Amino acid sequence: MMHAAFLLLFVFAVAGVPAAKMCTYQDVLDYLNLTADNSVFKLTRPVLNYTHPTIVELDILLYAILAVRWNDERISWDPSQFCGITRISIPREMLWRPDLFIYEMIQKDESPQNLYMSVTYNGMVISEEDIKVVSTCKMDVHKFPFDTQRCNISTGSAIHSVDEIRVLPFSNSSRATQFSREVMKTQGEWEFLQLTVDTANFTFHDREWEQLVYTFTVKRRPLLHVINFLLPILFFLSLDLASYFIADHRGEKLGFKVTVLLAISVLLLILNDILPSMSNKTPLVATYCIVIFALMLLSLLETILVTYLMEQDDASQEKLRLRDNCEDKQEKVQVYDCNTEEKRQTCCSCICKASDDEKQHEMLPASQEVKYFSYRIVIASQVEEILYVIVENSIQSGESHVLLLILKEMKDLQKTLNLHLGFKKEEGKASQWATRINRAFFIFYVTTVSLFIPFIFMEWNT
Fold first, then answer.
1. CB of 221 closer than 8 Å to CB of 191
2. pLDDT higher at 248 or 297
3. Using an 8 Å Cβ cutoff, are 63 and 94 in contact?
């Protein structure tokens, strides 16, 4: 009997438990009367009293999602009545959305749109979408390629003033910076530094508008530009300095400098494509290239001047050789006869003049004696050949004829010495200015480069 009573109690307890309620998202939509045909939820701002402002919270992450959330006062339900449902997803076209836009955007967004929004039980509407922003940014390229850029993205409502829509940041600056660094996979040429969030208000037509300003701070990675642009210009500058060791009287130096100048011109064309066309300050890299280009241009002009002076020197030496050759030809035509007393005196005077010139040559400085030592060797060999001929001729003829030949050859020797001495003196006078100009400009060149290059790099580092 007791056993049967237990069974009846058990059956009664089981029968007293209600069946589990089945809930769907459609039940929530039906409760809210939220349908595609119902225009109440999308025609006007979602407030029960028009004096209530709609709070819109905005969150932007670099290379991430633009999240917008606001509260719809006409949407609410009790999750306990719908099996604990606290969030539903609905098409974007079914609800009102804030007319937010980016002030700096210059190109239409072509990224794929998210077709749904999330709605919570307390009326919070959350919309997340990817946006590709192509905006204008005022760049400061004064320190290119070691520059740091700051760009703003300002977001606000197009028609609603601050009394109707308040735009507030969902994340502060530190949180937005941290999230942006976590989601960024590749940064390319730029290194992300910081993302700051701030609000700004402005007045237009007696109405106050509120906007949210996000400032992105990025730094350029300069390694590529240093290797491909700055170092080659330094290499060309070193080559231009090394060209001063090339002889000036040849044409190779002038052609070499022209080639280096053309190479710098090509790099300047590349720089024109890299730098933006509008800038408030002159970029340091442009100053760097222009000054080096100007130095190379002055170096080319200096080489042209020195080459011209050298050519003038060669022309004067050639005239001196032609004049001496003409005198030798005229003297060979004349017939010398030393039989008479007058001719003998003339010949003796020639010998005396030759001896005086030899004494004068012996008194020259040691440096000039070293220079003219090679000429003495050539002349001595010529005199040996002449004496050999004279000895042979003296056997066949008398003393007078031998003396005549000796005097004639000694006079030729005297003229040869005078020619070489005058050639060296004339050469020193003609090339003196060219040597001074070359040395002075080389000192100026090295001094300017040694002062200018460290100054530019110090400006880049500050």
1. yes
2. 297
3. no
- Provide the pLDDT confidence category of residue 433 given band limits of 50, 70 and 90: confident
pLDDT tens, residue by residue, 243-267: 888 877 667 888 888 999 998 888 8
How does pLDDT run across 259-292, given as a tens digit for each residue?
999 988 888 888 888 777 666 678 898 889 899 9
Give the integer Cα–Cα distance in Å for 244 and 450.
Answer: 17
pLDDT digits (tens, 9 = 90+) for 391-400: 555 545 555 5
Interior CA angle at 414 toward 412 and 417, to 5°?
110
What does the angle CA 82 – CA 85 – CA 90 come to, to the nearest 5 degrees? 110
CA distances (Å), origin 397, targets 383, 407, 441, 455: 20, 16, 65, 85
